[in-house]
Design a protein that fits this description.
By secondary structure, the protein is α+β, with helices and mostly antiparallel strands. It folds into two domains: 38 residues, no CATH class; 68 residues, no CATH class. It contains three helices and five strands; from the N terminus they run βββαβαβα. The strands form two sheets. Strands 1-2-3 form a three-stranded antiparallel β-sheet, with no helix packed on it. A two-stranded parallel sheet has the order 4-5. Strand 2 and strand 3 form a beta hairpin. The longest helix has 15 residues.
Length: 112
């Protein structure tokens, strides 16, 4: 993943104005995609991974983290939550059937 600042203006004398940034995701095989080309689920996954990485000492609060995500991605997220405390509001029937309401999410055996 790559973050590039977005140039708004350049006066030709070395003064430039920047506003916002663009995100580029690099996939296997050298393909690169702008964030506008990503699906809703891919954007949510990137945001969640970023959040998990920058505040790994803080509890993780999520609301419907499974929206737009493939079931395999959801399990991978659960497996990588680590020992941190988290509060997750979900209505996903797959998760509720698997874990039940008000219960702890468990990582898969052998997950790091």
């Amino acid at each position: 993943m790559e973050f590039r600042p977005r140039l708004v203006s350049d006066d030709g004398r070395g003064r430039r104005r920047w506003r916002g940034f663009d995100i580029y995701v690099h996939w296997g095989g050298g393909a690169m995609h702008h964030h506008s080309e990503l699906s809703f689920g891919q954007k949510r996954l990137i945001a969640l991974i970023w959040r998990m990485g920058v505040g790994d000492h803080l509890p993780l609060l999520t609301d419907e983290m499974t929206n737009g995500l493939h079931a395999g991605w959801v399990q991978a997220i659960i497996d990588h939550l680590g020992p941190r405390q988290g509060f997750h509001a979900v209505q996903n029937p797959l998760l509720l059937d698997r874990y039940g309401p008000g219960r702890a999410l468990k990582r898969s055996p052998g997950a790091s």
